[in-house]
Each structure stands twice: as structure tokens, then as C-alpha cells.
Amino acid sequence: MDACDGRVYQDRKPCNRYACHFLTVEFVLSALTLQERRVAWLMTSVQFVSVLSFMVIMPLGPDYAPALGIDTARVGWVMAAYTLSSALVGLFAAMVLDRFDRRPALGICMIGLVLCNVAAAFAFDLWSLLLARAVAGLFGGPAGALSVAIVADNVPPERRGKAMGMVMGSLSISAVLGVPLALELSHLFGWRVPFLTVAGMGLIIIIVALRLLGPQRSHMGGTPVPLSQAPRHLMRIAYGMLPALAFALSFIAIVPSFMLISNMAVFVQFNLAFPREQLGMLYMIGGALSFFGMRVTGALVDRYGSTPVTTGAALGLAILIWLLYYDWHWAALPIVTLVPGFMVFNSARMVAQSAAVSKVPAAEDRAGFMALVQSVTQVAGGLASLIAAAMLSTGPAGELLHMEDVALVALVITLMAPPLIWALERRVPRDAGISHRVRAVMKGTSGG
């Protein structure tokens, strides 16, 4: 590929020999194909179960903590158990995932996740719940990396923002449908029922996904790296300024979210006196707005790039953190506006950053690289939850003390994202946004 090819898509200034084919290329880039859309929706469904399995523990804190005798300020431990175990297994998964067909690997991970949700439903104290969640992390981390890798394998970079917006939208779908349903089931039947429900949904979705998803071996064209050399290969794909920026950006993306979201339900209920019976509505509104916001974000990333979108989302998120945790009375905004707004800007930031990070690895290294990214994010989430739990204490009425200090740390870290993503995008090769499919169209229409 020469410099002219890069300018067709990056700067929209085609060389003369491609001018007559510009409309053809624009048509190719206009929307996801039917097959790409199918893969994106299947992986969105898989991610829905994976994300919900992880997310369901957060808003249920006020319900299971008293039942199991857990201090509400230590709810973050349960999240940390999942994220840290997921991070550890991610290092191993990064060395082996690219050696296999992604389809059966995904099936194994999801079945393990389903069984772990059943185990969590039968937890009888803090330690049994921690064990169930830790084992769930061993399956959930690789499952997330595989689903993102499958989308990246099947959707070219110039349309990947839309596809990533769909897949990352599973976070919002979980908030719109899963979390409110879990809260209502817990309110009516007890906190154990949501875990059993997630397990049942996961079993159905993975059966359907495996039936409709074809073999995923496009990354296996070359000779696989011998397992004895896998650690060295892993160091190779993780070495350099570009991977380092991707890992730093992934770390920065997660820390503010986990420091605040892991304690969000407890904070709004006990500190802000938000009614317990309306928590489901709060998450539903936030999830619904985030779902559509993610779709818009994906299109904006495809059009303008990740840097301006991340910058806008980070600034909006910082403002909402300040209002929610410091001065929401001054703004006279209701909680039902601030919390959903927080979710919208947080999810938009994650879509933009995920699209940028997905351009870093080569296709044959993608699952391994994304598993490393997953490990980084899980370490970030685990550390964020533990740090927040260490900073917090519980007041006499169950309220969280020192939450404003946690929010200040999250706000400062949030504002570190724009310069990082700017540094990453300016180092991504200019032809990283052009897929082999578009090159084929250009070659065919030019008679080459």
C-alpha cells in the first residue's frame, strides 16, 4: 500500500487515479454488511451475558450484604475478586487464544461462566461468594477478549466503530434490561434469584450463538508459535510505545468507572436517600440512554476519530462526577438526571477508546493482544475497587463516608484520557483504517 491509499480514507483527498472510484469506496464504507451485522449482534448477545454476570453484583450490594453479613463498605471486595482473577487468567489466555478456533474457545468460556453464576446463587457467606466470583472471572475475562477479537476479525477498521458501538452497547443493554430485572427479582424473591436467571439466559444465548456463528479461523493462516515460545511472543506483541499507550489508555478508562460504579447503588440509596424500589428505574433510564448514545458514539468515531470523541466524553464525565458527588444541590438537577448522564458519558468514552485500541494489533495477534488488554482492564478494575473500599467507611445509617475523596481521584484520572488517546492515534499507521476488503474493491474497480 502506498501513501496515496492512506490519503483516500484518512484525509478524504484521493489521488487522481482513484477519483473516479471514490463513490464506490464511499458506498462500501457506508454501513455494516449483513454478515458483519450478524456477527456483531451475536457477540453483543454473548457480551450481554458476560457483562451482566459481572455487573449484577454491583447494584445487588444493598441486598446481599446484610443477608451474608458483609459490611457495605466492603462490597468492592466482591468485584475485585472477579476482576483480579480475570486479569491473572488473561495472561495465560493471551498466549494460547490465537492458537485455536475462536468459536469453541468462546463456548467453553461461556459455559464456565454460566456454572459460576449458579455457584454464586448458593453462596452462604462472604468467602463462598468471593470464591464463586473469582472462578467466574477465570472464564469471563477470556470470553470478553474473544468476543471483541471475533468482531475485529470480521469487521474492517473503517466500519469497526459502528460494530464496537453495538458490542460495547451490551453494557447499556445490561443496564436497561438486566440490572433493573435483577433488582426487581431480588426485591421480590431474594438476591439469589438474579444469579440463577443470568445462568439460564446465558445457557440459551450461548447455544444460539454457537449454532449461528461459523468457524472463526481467519487468524490461523500462518504457522502457530510453539507453546514454549509463547511467553516470548507475548512480550513481542506487548512491546513498544503503541502497545504501551493502548494498555495505559485501557487502564485509565476503567479506574474511574470502577471506583464509582462499584459503590453507586449504595451511595445513591444511603447517602442521597434515593428510594430502593426506584433503583431499577434509575439503571433502566441510564442504560437506555447509553445504548443509543453508544450507537451515536460509534458513528462519530468512524467520522471524526477517537480523540475528539474521547475528549468531549471525558469533559462531560468530569462535570457529572463533580455535580453528583460534590455539588448536585447547587445545580438543582435530580438524581434521575445525574446518574444516567454519568452512564452515558462513561459508556461513550469507552466505545471511543476501544475502537482506537482495536487498531493496534495485527490480525494474527488480535485475540492475544485483546486478552492482554482485558487483563490490564481487570487489574485496573480490581485495584480501583480495592482502593475505593480502603478509602471508604460506613456511617451509622449505612451511608458511605469519604465518597467525595474517591470521586476526586476518579475525576483527575478521567482527565488523563484525552492526551493518551491523542498520542496513540497519531502513532497508529495511516493505513490501519483500510481493510483488505476495501483494497480489493479499489483494485477491482481500477482494473488492477
Characterize the structure shown.
By secondary structure, the protein is mainly α. The chain has one domain: Growth Hormone, Chain: A, CATH 1.20.1250. It is built from 22 helices and two strands. It has helices at residues 3-10, 16-19, 22-29, 34-55, 61-68, 75-96, 102-121, 126-154, 157-168, 170-189, 192-212, 230-238, 241-261, 264-271, 279-304, 306-325, 328-331, 335-357, 366-391, 403-414, 417-425, 436-446, and strands at residues 393-394, 400-401. A two-stranded antiparallel ribbon has the order 1-2. α4 (34-55) runs antiparallel to α11 (192-212). The longest helix is centred in the first third of the chain and has 29 residues, at 126-154. The model is unreliable at 1-30 and 433-448 (pLDDT under 50).
Ordered list of secondary-structure elements with their pairings:
Elements (H helix, E strand, L loop, with lengths): L2 H8 L5 H4 L2 H8 L4 H22 L5 H8 L6 H22 L5 H20 L4 H29 L2 H12 L1 H20 L2 H21 L17 H9 L2 H21 L2 H8 L7 H26 L1 H20 L2 H4 L3 H23 L8 H26 L1 E2 L5 E2 L1 H12 L2 H9 L10 H11 L2
Antiparallel strand pairs: 1-2
Helix pairs in contact: 3-22, 4-8, 4-9, 4-10, 4-11, 6-8, 6-19, 7-8, 7-11, 8-9, 8-19, 9-15, 9-18, 10-11, 10-15, 13-18, 13-19, 13-20, 13-21, 15-16, 15-18, 16-18, 16-20, 16-21
Protein name: Major facilitator superfamily (MFS) profile domain-containing protein
Keywords: Cell membrane, Membrane, Transmembrane, Transmembrane helix
Pfam families: MFS_1
